[in-house]
Each structure stands twice: as structure tokens, then as C-alpha cells.
């Protein structure tokens, strides 16, 4: 079989393709006809199969394309929720009280490093890591999930970020990320009111799934806790493109969530810090209220604490320092400190007696300096007694014996009812989680809890001692209600997302003449000769203040010591001295503000609390231009003031 | 001894001696360059697809495959120049070698995806089952050439070629590689058919086949049964066995009419597609270029099949015709099995798309086969 040139074959260039050779006659090769038939049969089969496949491809890609495209989209996208920005809190003047600050942090992707420990060590040479950081990294490493970065260090400064950027090539897998941290510019000043946030715990996550989102914070105290619903906001969603291994390749779509509501408080931060200055290093609390609408403008409790400690994680030594401090910085004494109201309670007793017609304002009671009941001698604060005095005088001198008798005469039920009406007993609608209710119990209530009631308990309640307990906030509310004759409710929220928090108050169930009698007694305390609190007189032209002092014993004075005539509570150790209290409202003729001050172990309300309250009232009046204009207009009917 | 003795290999010298009157250049002139161009187009499609499969990088798959193709092209042209006589001479050793390699791969092959398919040949991995198809085409063509058309009617004459076909089929089945075994069997059968097997013989052989189905199913390996089950109900295990079929379907559908754009197929680029550079390369093309691109590739593949069949038809000698038809069928079956597989028409089996899928053995054996095809074109006018 040799290869031969076939001269009869057409020239090559005419054969542009194999098809050009067809057809050829059967005689060209033996059996060619059969082969041609069968080969063409196979070719036809091939064409048929390929055509079928092309048709099938058409079915898949064009006919069912859209539904499969949707499946592919679902394949590659992963929808994630993103934490909304927490609502900001402002004071009544628009000063930021709680905001969100960007938090630059260094993270490391464990998958992108070969030796995580080496990277951490090298990182520590650039940005120092303390023992707590190292312990946390060690702990997090144990249960880290794939493609979830590990936090190396939070709260980086710009210097840190710059240095890390410079050293990036030597830190494989390290990335800088920005989150937010809660910022409290006034730290200690508002810690009790604003509260603080902390990372959510298991229970929070179970209650609401969005709490599992990274960056979510939950309010743990103060307004942050009670206004959680408003502050939290609605989460946004972000659609990420992921690959088959779940790794994020990019962002496709972002729907911003609804940030938390903007809260505006009734507080005046400048006033608040002024009050704080006035109190100095005393352990005290002071409440300033707009007595017409219940807006709490100042709410101070000293000492305080730094709320940012909790968001970033608090150390053991810091925590121990906070809980062992004698001044109890973690307790908001203005709202949850329970004190015997002492003599500040006397106007309430007077109103109870007047309302129940047990006494009249002009009825005189005799005070020899003591009151004997059932073999027990109850002393007046004045050893020499006040003689025969009426209600006005009793309030002015703060005579104890007068109120012992009045209390016995009108009975505990009437006192309880009046105290409850005036806000001293029971809860107040303040937006703080740690609010504690004052208590002015009746014998019935005591017995229900299995306690015995002595006649002496009623006598002691007459001067706000014994079983009577209340808070500075309740005292301020009480002063506001006395001043306006309305059921003023204290509140801290002025508006939520710029929607005003509406308030309207009912008149108190006391006759105006009774209220006027109590007010005039309180006016005398400050402004008349021999009043107990001349130190509280305001040094403002044309503005007069009414008030009531209180000195609440925290410990019984032994009879022998008192009778020796040498007793002076100033000589007691600090923690046994009486609390000093003062409540007041001003201007007397058109009440605008009410203030309550409690100085723990301040010894005497007249010397310690009254001047402080007067200073605070002066600050409040001077700060508010509205009050000056209302003064210049002269006397305005009290009811009008409410409608402003 | 002349200088030529050292520079030109002995085989080549023998080839040259066989046709002293034809110079190398004039024989190169005889090669069907249109067909070579089609092959190059197909390899070009492969390069483009592999560039995308490598995530937009040539180094990953496209570059090595191009080098293989260039090597294969030279081999193809070399084989194209070989005379049918030499090829017939070599058919027995080549067949013997392929059987030896198949036996060897069963003994000491490398396990890849549950089947012994790979053999390590001094540094590179080789799939003997690919090579056995070409060897079988050559062997059967030689055999049928020797017995001639007239003696095809004698059933006794067909026993030996039948055994020659069954031997590689059984060995490949043992690997176990059901897909390739089927291809080898069908190639053999089509050669029997084209060589002139009588219709009554064909009917006699084919009629019992439907009854063998359950029998074959019972003798399948568990993974093969699982594949069939998966194929019938891919949604039962979408993340496990059914994953390939489902993801491939999704990717093709996502391509739609016009495709998602080159390098922008999300299924492929985001690694949802398994084996995207090898068996499932067509899915990737379909996803990125859409139905238009997919049909273009199918059209190109069919053009090559058509050209191959026409080469076989144009050939005036029995050996050339049978070799041409065998290679054409080999190429056709490769394409059909692969395309049906990625479209979910038949169960998944490791069959690549010729010249497009990444892989050396399939590419080189296919190029060797095209070399044989071109050889029968070059010698198309040789008499029997």
C-alpha cells in the first residue's frame, strides 16, 4: 500500500472545507455506499442529539432562567441586620447628654494569619496590650467562629491607628474597624439620671433577637434603661455577597435602620452643675422642679460615679471602690434615698388636720417643751417650749409639741391620706427605674405586715419621724403641690422625637384656705422674725421664698443626755448626726419653682440645708428669664401659671 | 551513517522512507487546515473559559492548558503525517499498551473521588481510560480493515473484535468509571455498525439490552447507585450529593439568554460551582455568556463533529473511514456525555468537555485522535 499522488484530484485551494468534496460516487471505494449510509445515519443521530441538547439548554436558560436566576441570587446573598444607632439624649437647652462616639478598634481575622500568637505579640509592641486585654483575647480565641474577627483592642487613638497602618505589612490579618461606644460628656454629673448601657446578656437576646447583633447595647440603669424602647431604634439590613464558603465578598444593598428616638429632658445641665458646685463634697441630694408643670430641672445626688466605666468593662478595684464608699455613689439618693422627712412633714400634718376638721388654723396648743403620753416623754426641739401657739406660729417655730398633739387628734389615717395626696406616700411617675416609694403607713397597713402600732408612732409621725420615710424627689413634689395646689407629677422627659410629653394636673382636694394657711406658715419660716430659716431668705429684689426646715434624727437621743442640757448633735460621729432637710418654693406670691435639699448627717436643716436650698433657688431663678418676666408682671393668678 | 541518522528519530525515518516520493512540506500541505482551525477555535474557547475559572488569572488554569494544547497540536500534526500502514502496524502495540495501563491503574492507581482512575507516569498523572478509547478505535479499524466488508456477515469473525472491545470496557468499569466505560462500549459498537455488521446481527444483539438494565443496576457500586438516585431526585440532598446538579442547573439558568457577563458569573466566581474548571466548565460558560454563548459552543462542537464525519466520508479507504468515524464518535460521545451531565440529563460521571476542560490526559488523547483523523484525511485517496 503506497501513497500515490492522485493527479485527477481537484486543486487544494478549491477545497475550502470537507463539504466541498461531497458527494462522491460509490464506485470510489468498495462498500463505500453502505458506509456512507451508515455514517450519515450516525451523523444524523449526532445532529439530533446536539439539537436536543441545545433545546434543553434553551429550556433551562431562557424558559426557566428567571426562577433559576432568583435561586442564584439567594445563593450568593446573605441578608444581615445592622444595629441601629442608639437615640441621643439632650437636656432642655439642647446640650448633648448621651451620644454615640466612634470607637476605632483593631480586629484580627484568624484565617488570614498563620501564627495568631505571633501577630498578637507583634501587635503588642506597636499598641500596648494590658493584662485584661490579653486575658480577653485568650478567652475569645477558644470559641471563635470562622470568619468572625477577634477583637484585639478597642478605643484606639488616632496615633494608634496611624502606627498600625504603618506597620500593616507585618500584621497579617489585622484590620481596623469602627464601631460606636456610648458617650456621656457629663459623666458623674448625670450618671444617676442617664444611667448607662452594657452589652446585652443571654436573657436580653432571648427576649429580642435583634439584641444579638454586634454593636447592640442595652440600657442597664437610669433613663437608658426605662427609655430603652425609644432609644433602641429599628435595625437596618444589609445584603452581602457571599461565596460558597460563606465569606463576605462585598456589599450589595443597604437599608438603613431607624435610629433610636431623640430624647429631650427637662433637666438644665448648667443648673445641674451649679447645684453640684453648691453642694461641694457634702453627701447630699437636691431636686429642683418647675412646680407648675412638674419638670424636674435639677436632680443631684452626691457623690456620683463615671457611667462610661460600665460600657468599656469595669475593673475589680474600681468596682470595689464604688461599693465600699460611705457616700454610696452608686445610689441615686435623690430618687431612691429614703429619709425621715422630719419637720418638713409638718405642713402635711397641718393639712391633714385642717381637712379632717380636727383643728382650725387659729386654735392654740400649748407647748411646755415636752409632751407626755403613756409614760413616755416626747420633747420639743426647744427645751423651753413655745407657749400657746396657733398653726402659723407652730410652722414658723417648727414646734414639735404642737404637732404631737395635732397628730394624735386627727389620727394616722388622715395623715396618711394627706401625705399620699401630697406625694409623700407611694410611687411617683418619674422615668427612673430606681425610684423608691415614700411611705407614711397607717396602723392598719402596719398590722397587715405583722407589726405592732404604738400610740407613740402616731406622735412621732406628727413631726415626720419614726415610721415616716420619703425621698428628696417626693419632698420636691410635695413642695410643688403645696405651692400650686395641684397634683403636680414630676417627670424628666420633655419630648420624645420632638413630640412633647403632655401633662395636665388636677387640683388637690384641699380647700384653698387650708393650703394658704400652710403656705403662710412656710412663708413665716423664712421671712418672719423668729422663723427657723432666716438663712434661706432670698437676696433677690421682690422675690420671696417659702420653706420648711427639717432635721431628721437617725438615732434616739438618750433621755439622760438630753436632760443634762449638754447635748449637742454636732458632737456625734458623722454617721449618727441627724439629716438636714429643707423644702421650699418661690416666688411666694406666684410659685414657679420648688426645691428640696437633703444633706445626709448635715445636723440641722436650718443651718445646713436651708442656706443651700436658698442658693439653689437663687441660681434657678436667676437662670430662668421667664421667671423674671413673670415677676415684673406682678402677681398672677396661680391657676394661670399652670396653663402657660 | 549520516547526520540524518542522529537528528531524525528512527520512526520518522521509517515513515519518510515509506513514501520516498513525497516531501515533508507537500504532505503538510495536504493537512486539512480548516479542521485545524476549528480545533484551535475550540481550544481558544477553552482558554477564555479557563481564564475565568481561574478567577481572572491566566496562571491558574489557562496558561498550563495552553502549553499542553501547543504540545498536543505538534503531536497531532506529527500523527497526521503518519501513513495508515504504519498506524496499522502500531495498532496492536498501542492497544496492548492501553490494556496494560488499564490493568496497572487497577493495581496501583491513585484514588480520585472514589474511583481509581489516575496513574502516575514519571511526574504527571495520566488517565489510561482516555487513552484506551483511541487505542480501541485504532485496533478495531485495523481488524475490520483486515477482514474486509464481505466477511462481516460471518458472526465468528466478529467474536475477536467483540472481545477486543469488551476487554477495555470491563477494565474501565472496574476502575470504576461508568461514564468512560459506556463511551468505550458505544465507540466499539459504532465501529461494528459502520464496518458493515448485518442488521439482523445488530437486532439480535440489541434486543436483550433493555432486560439487562436492572441487572446492571444491581451490580453498580454504591456511589454509582447514589449518583443515579441523586440524578433522579437532586432536591433530596441539596447540600450533599445533589449539590453539583442543583448548582449547575442554577448557574445555567442564572446565565439566562445573554449571560451574566464575562468574569461576572456569580455561581462560578463565588465557588458555588464545583469542578468549574474541569467537568463543569460548560456551566461556567453558560452562566457567563448565557444561552447565546452556550449555543455557540454547542455549534462549534457540532461543526467539529460534522467535519470529522465528512473527513471519514470523504476517505476512499476502509481503514481511514473507520478511524475517522471512530474518532468522530469519540469526540461526539465526550461532548454529549459531558453536556448532558452538566445540564442534568444524565447522572454525573467524570467526563470532561474535550479541549475545553482543564486536564492533560483528555486533551492529549483527543489531540492524538484528531491526529489519526487528519492522517486519514491526508491519505484519503489511498486505495484499499
How would you describe this protein?
The complex is a heterodimer of chains A (644) and B (384). Chain A is of the alpha+beta class and 644 residues long. Chain A folds into two domains: 80-265, Penicillin-binding protein 2a (Domain 2) (Alpha-Beta Complex); 269-303 and 329-643, DD-peptidase/beta-lactamase superfamily (Beta-lactamase, 3-Layer(aba) Sandwich). In chain A, helix 10 runs antiparallel to helix 23 (605-623). By secondary structure, chain B is mainly alpha-helical. Chain B is 69% helix and 3% strand. Chain B is built from 17 helices and three strands. In chain B, helix 9 (178-195) runs antiparallel to helix 16 and helix 15 packs parallel to helix 17. Chain B starts with a helix and ends in a 6-residue tail after the last helix. The chains are: A alpha+beta (644), B mainly alpha (384). The interface between A and B is large, with 57 and 71 residues.
Distance between the termini of chain B: 35 Å
**Share of helical residues of chain A:** 25-40%
Q: Can you tell me the number of structural domains of chain B?
A: 1
**N- and C-termini, Cα separation of chain A:** 122 Å
Q: Indicate the proportion of strand residues of chain A.
A: 15-25%
What class do helices, strands and sheet pairing of chain A give? alpha+beta
Main β-sheet description of chain A:
7 strands, mixed
Low-confidence stretches of chain A: 1-30, 630-644
Helix content of chain B: 55-70%
Strand content of chain B: under 5%
Radius of gyration of chain A: 40 Å
CATH topology group of the largest domain in chain A: Beta-lactamase
For the largest beta-sheet of chain B, the strand count, sense and barrel status come to:
3 strands, antiparallel
Overall shape of chain B: globular
Membrane topology (chain B): Multi-pass membrane protein
Family (chain B): Belongs to the SEDS family. MrdB/RodA subfamily.
Organism (chain B): Bombella pluederhausensis
Subcellular location (chain B): Cell inner membrane; Membrane
Amino acid at each position: 500500500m503506497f501513497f500515490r499522488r492522485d493527479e485527477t484530484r481537484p486543486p487544494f485551494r478549491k477545497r475550502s472545507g470537507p463539504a466541498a468534496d461531497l458527494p462522491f460516487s460509490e464506485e470510489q471505494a468498495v462498500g463505500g455506499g453502505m458506509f456512507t449510509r451508515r455514517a450519515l445515519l450516525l451523523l444524523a443521530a449526532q445532529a439530533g442529539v446536539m439539537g436536543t441538547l441545545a433545546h434543553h439548554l434553551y429550556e433551562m436558560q431562557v424558559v426557566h432562567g428567571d426562577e433559576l436566576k432568583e435561586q442564584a441570587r439567594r445563593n450568593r446573598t446573605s441578608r444581615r441586620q445592622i444595629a441601629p444607632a442608639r437615640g441621643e439624649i439632650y437636656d432642655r437647652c439642647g446640650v448633648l447628654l448621651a451620644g454615640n462616639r466612634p470607637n476605632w478598634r483593631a480586629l484580627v481575622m484568624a484565617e488570614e494569619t498563620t501564627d495568631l500568637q505571633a501577630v498578637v505579640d507583634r501587635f503588642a509592641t506597636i499598641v500596648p496590650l494590658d493584662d485584661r486585654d490579653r486575658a480577653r483575647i485568650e478567652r475569645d480565641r477558644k470559641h471563635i467562629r470562622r470568619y468572625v474577627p477577634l477583637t484585639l483592642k478597642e478605643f484606639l487613638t488616632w496615633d494608634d491607628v496611624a502606627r498600625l497602618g504603618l506597620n500593616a505589612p507585618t500584621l497579617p490579618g489585622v484590620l481596623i474597624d469602627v464601631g460606636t461606644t456610648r458617650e456621656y460628656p457629663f459623666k458623674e454629673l448625670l450618671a444617676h439620671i442617664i444611667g448607662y448601657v452594657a452589652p446585652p446578656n443571654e436573657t436580653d437576646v432571648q427576649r429580642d433577637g435583634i439584641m444579638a447583633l454586634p454593636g447592640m447595647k442595652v440600657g442597664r440603669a437610669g433613663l437608658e434603661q426605662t427609655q430603652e424602647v425609644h432609644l433602641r431604634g429599628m435595625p437596618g439590613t444589609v445584603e452581602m455577597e457571599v461565596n460558597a464558603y460563606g465569606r463576605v465578598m462585598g456589599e450589595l444593598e443597604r437599608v438603613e435602620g431607624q435610629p433610636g428616638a431623640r430624647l429631650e429632658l427637662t433637666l438644665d445641665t448648667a443648673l445641674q452643675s451649679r447645684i453640684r458646685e453648691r453642694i461641694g463634697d457634702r453627701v447630699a441630694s437636691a431636686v429642683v422642679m418647675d412646680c407648675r408643670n412638674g419638670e424636674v430641672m435639677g436632680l443631684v445626688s452626691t457623690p456620683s460615679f463615671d457611667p462610661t466605666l460600665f460600657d468599656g468593662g469595669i475593673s475589680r478595684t474600681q468596682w470595689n471602690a464604688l461599693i465600699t464608699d460611705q457616700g454610696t455613689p452608686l445610689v441615686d439618693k435623690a430618687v431612691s434615698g429614703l429619709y425621715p422627712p422630719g419637720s418638713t412633714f409638718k405642713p402635711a400634718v397641718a393639712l391633714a388636720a385642717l381637712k379632717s376638721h380636727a383643728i382650725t388654723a387659729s386654735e392654740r396648743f400649748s407647748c411646755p417643751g415636752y409632751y407626755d403620753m403613756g409614760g413616755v416623754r416626747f420633747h420639743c426641739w426647744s427645751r423651753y417650749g413655745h407657749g400657746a401657739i396657733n398653726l402659723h406660729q407652730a410652722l414658723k417655730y417648727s414646734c414639735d409639741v404642737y404637732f404631737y398633739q395635732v397628730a394624735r387628734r386627727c389620727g394616722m389615717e388622715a395623715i396618711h391620706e394627706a401625705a399620699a395626696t401630697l406625694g409623700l406616700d407611694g410611687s411617683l411617675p418619674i422615668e427612673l427605674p430606681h425610684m423608691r416609694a415614700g411611705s407614711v403607713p397607717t396602723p392598719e397597713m402596719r398590722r397587715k405586715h405583722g407589726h405592732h402600732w404604738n400610740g407613740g408612732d402616731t406622735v412621732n409621725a406628727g413631726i415626720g419621724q419614726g415610721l415616716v420615710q420619703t425621698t428628696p424627689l417626693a419632698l420636691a413634689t410635695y413642695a410643688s403641690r403645696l405651692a400650686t395646689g395641684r397634683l403636680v407629677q414630676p417627670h424628666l422627659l420633655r419630648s420624645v422625637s420632638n413630640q412633647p410629653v403632655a401633662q395636665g394636673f388636677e387640683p388637690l382636694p384641699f380647700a384653698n384656705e387650708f393650703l394658704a394657711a400652710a403656705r403662710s406658715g412656710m412663708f413665716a419660716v423664712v421671712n418672719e422674725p423668729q422663723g427657723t430659716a432666716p438663712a434661706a431668705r432670698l437676696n433677690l429684689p421682690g422675690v420671696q421664698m417659702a420653706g420648711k426646715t427639717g432635721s431628721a434624727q437617725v438615732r434616739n437621743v438618750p433621755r439622760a443626755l438630753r436632760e443634762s442640757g449638754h447635748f449637742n448633735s454636732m458632737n456625734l460621729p458623722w454617721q449618727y448626726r441627724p439629716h438636714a432637710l429643707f423644702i421650699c418654693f418661690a416666688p411666694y406670691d406666684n410659685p414657679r419653682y420648688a426645691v428640696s435639699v437633703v444633706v445626709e448627717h448635715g445636723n440641722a436643716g436650718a443651718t445646713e440645708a436651708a442656706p443651700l436650698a436658698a442658693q439653689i433657688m437663687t441660681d434657678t431663678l436667676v437662670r430662668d428669664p421667664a421667671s423674671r418676666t413673670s415677676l415684673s408682671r406682678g402677681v398672677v393668678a396661680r391657676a394661670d401659671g399652670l396653663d402657660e | 551513517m549520516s547526520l540524518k541518522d542522529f537528528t531524525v528519530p528512527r520512526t520518522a525515518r521509517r515513515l519518510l522512507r515509506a513514501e520516498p516520493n513525497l516531501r515533508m512540506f507537500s504532505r503538510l500541505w495536504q493537512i486539512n487546515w480548516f479542521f485545524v482551525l476549528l480545533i484551535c477555535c475550540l481550544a481558544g474557547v477553552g482558554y477564555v473559559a479557563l481564564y475565568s475559572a481561574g478567577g481572572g488569572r491566566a496562571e491558574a488554569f489557562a496558561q498550563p492548558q495552553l502549553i499542553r494544547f501547543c504540545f498536543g497540536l505538534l503531536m497531532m500534526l506529527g500523527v497526521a503525517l503518519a501513513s495508515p500502514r504504519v498506524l496499522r502496524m502500531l495498532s496492536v502495540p498501542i492497544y496492548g499498551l492501553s490494556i496494560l495501563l488499564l490493568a496497572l491503574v487497577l493495581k496501583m492507581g491513585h484514588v480520585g473521588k472514589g474511583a481509581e482512575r489516575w496513574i502516575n507516569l514519571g511526574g504527571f498523572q495520566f488517565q489510561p481510560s482516555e487513552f484506551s478509547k483511541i487505542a480501541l478505535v485504532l485496533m478495531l479499524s485495523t481488524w475490520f480493515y483486515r477482514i474486509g466488508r464481505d466477511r462481516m456477515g460471518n458472526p465468528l469473525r466478529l467474536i475477536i473484535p467483540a472481545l477486543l472491545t469488551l476487554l477495555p470496557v470491563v477494565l474501565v468499569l472496574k476502575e470504576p468509571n461508568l461514564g468512560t466505560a459506556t463511551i468505550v462500549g458505544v465507540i466499539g459498537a459504532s465501529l461494528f455498525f459502520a464496518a458493515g455488521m448485518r442488521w439482523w446481527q445488530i437486532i439480535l444483539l440489541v434486543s436483550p439490552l433493555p432486560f439487562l438494565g436492572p441487572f446492571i443496576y444491581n451490580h453498580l457500586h454504591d456511589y454509582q447507585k447514589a449518583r443515579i438516585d441523586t440524578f433522579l431526585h437532586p432536591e433530596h440532598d441539596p447540600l450533599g450529593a445533589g449539590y453539583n446538579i442543583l448548582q449547575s442547573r442554577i448557574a445555567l439558568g442564572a446565565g439566562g439568554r445573554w449571560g451574566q457577563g464575562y468574569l461576572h458569573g456569580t455561581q462560578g466566581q463565588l465557588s458555588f460551582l464545583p469542578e468549574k474548571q474541569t467537568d463543569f466548565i460548560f456551566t461556567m460558560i453558560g452562566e457567563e455568556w448565557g444561552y447565546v454563548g452556550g449555543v455557540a459552543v454547542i455549534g462549534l462542537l457540532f461543526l467539529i463533529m460534522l467535519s470529522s464525519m465528512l473527513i471519514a466520508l470523504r476517505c476512499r479507504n476502509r481503514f481511514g473511514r473507520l478511524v475517522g468515524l471512530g474518532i468522530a464518535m469519540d469526540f461526539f460521545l465526550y461532548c454529549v456525555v459531558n453536556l448532558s451531565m452538566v445540564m442534568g440529563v444524565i447522572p454525573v460521571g467524570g467526563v470532561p468537555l474535550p479541549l475545553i476542560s482543564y486536564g492533560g490526559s483528555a486533551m492529549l488523547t483527543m489531540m492524538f485522535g484528531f491526529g489519526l483523523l487528519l492522517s486519514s484525511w491526508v491519505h484519503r485517496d489511498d486505495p484499499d
